[in-house]
Amino acid sequence: MSHNFQLRSSALPLRFFPGGLGARFLCNEPKHLGSSNSVGVAVASPASRTLQRHQAKATAKEVGVQETAQGSAALGWAARDASGVLSPFDFSRRAQKDDDVTIKVLYCGICHTDLYTIKNEWGTAMYPVVPGHEILGVVTSAGSGVTKFKAGETVGVGYFLGSCRSCECCGNGYENYCSGMVLTSNGTDREHGGEVTQGGFSDVIVANQDYVVRVPDGLPLAGAAPLLCAGVTVYSPMMRFGLNAPGKHLGVVGLGGLGHVAVKFGKAFGMKVTVISTSPGKREEALERLGADEFLVSRDPEQMQAAFGTMDGILDTVSAWHPISPLFALMKPMGQMVFVGGPTKPLELPAYAIVPGGKGIAGNCVGGIGDCQAMLEFAGKHGITAEVEVIKMDYVNTALERLEKNDVRYRFVIDVAGSLGSTA
């Protein structure tokens, strides 16, 4: 019998993969080093002319959502086939129920899941697909049974907007692991007639109040949008596995959309944080800009040897194949490794890397609603946001091309309200 076993991430259900959630390639440097507050990128295109017509129509209405028994009018950008090209798309949101809120979308982050889904890389796309699950907006209307929110409040919707509510996972606050979890984009909403869900690359969304979170006052909205996915994905396992204690040593593999947020949370917890990367050029960014304590080049045997057995736990955020056995050697006995990326090729691990030190392996997919709310409150208290490049909707196809090349630092966020206007 072989002493190696494989972690076959590609065999897991789609819902357990919020799509890279950050650095897709550990070995490549970002080519575009824009400001974290870069805004207003616009490129003329035929789609932009169509967009202008929709904007003019929305402006002429001058009122709120036009509600019908079937739902409300919405404008999004959708992919129609595996090319993944997005273009304007008129559709209807479901009618608001008593326990629902209607939300005007202000900002929506772009995650690798969006890219994988619109290109049908997992074979699950139900076209047309409106992507987007890092949604920040404002409540415009609340149903008569809503007790948690009122019109005018700033809220968020993340990776999912429904679950079965009756299983053990839901009962324990782990709705993100419910077998009946309803994805915010490209999901099947059985509670509402089996309709396919459309995401936040749109001007309005309707959601049950129990799957909406409140955004703390003062938290910059564009930078907060990626926290609804990337933020909770690193925060929740840190809390679950005790990787939040002051003085503990945390390793973060990969300095992308997930990794850079993990560094910020680790430092806010009072931990020692080491970034582990194949790219020496990221050292200054990690240490000077993000505040990491140390930077470790994983391809340098001397550096790896010097860090042997020093870490209490490691968050591996990388979604490309990479050798993982050397990473376990960096941890102390009974250290915890948490995988939050989703490589499509199996990761091989010899038993001797974990058995002698009693080291643990875990995976994590986003977090429950309670985790997400707690994460936002912690982020608000410590001023944590993602480093983002804010774009207009008519730049989205270019942004997706750049994302596929890992050419973003560190997250694209769409100024939805500033691009589409809103019928909400």
From TrEMBL:
Ranges of residues in domain Enoyl reductase (ER) = 84-414
User: Which Enzyme Commission numbers does its entry carry?
Assistant: 1.1.1.195
Q: Which cofactor does it need?
A: Zn(2+)
Name the SUPFAM superfamilies for this protein: GroES-like (SSF50129), NAD(P)-binding Rossmann-fold domains (SSF51735)
Under which main EC class is this enzyme filed? oxidoreductase
* GO process annotations (BP): lignin biosynthetic process
Q: What catalytic activity does the UniProt entry give for this protein?
A: (E)-sinapyl alcohol + NADP(+) = (E)-sinapaldehyde + NADPH + H(+); (E)-4-coumaroyl alcohol + NADP(+) = (E)-4-coumaraldehyde + NADPH + H(+); (E)-cinnamyl alcohol + NADP(+) = (E)-cinnamaldehyde + NADPH + H(+); (E)-caffeyl alcohol + NADP(+) = (E)-caffeyl aldehyde + NADPH + H(+)
- What does the record give under GO molecular function? cinnamyl-alcohol dehydrogenase activity; metal ion binding
- Give, as in the UniProt entry, the pathway in which the protein acts: Aromatic compound metabolism; phenylpropanoid biosynthesis
Classification via Pfam families = ADH_N (PF08240), ADH_zinc_N (PF00107)
User: Which keywords does UniProt give here?
Assistant: Lignin biosynthesis, Metal-binding, NADP, Oxidoreductase, Zinc
Question: Tell me, how does this one assemble?
Answer: Homodimer.
Which family is annotated?
Answer: Belongs to the zinc-containing alcohol dehydrogenase family.
Q: What is this protein called?
A: cinnamyl-alcohol dehydrogenase
Organism this protein belongs to: Lolium multiflorum
- Lineage per the UniProt record: Eukaryota, Viridiplantae, Streptophyta, Embryophyta, Tracheophyta
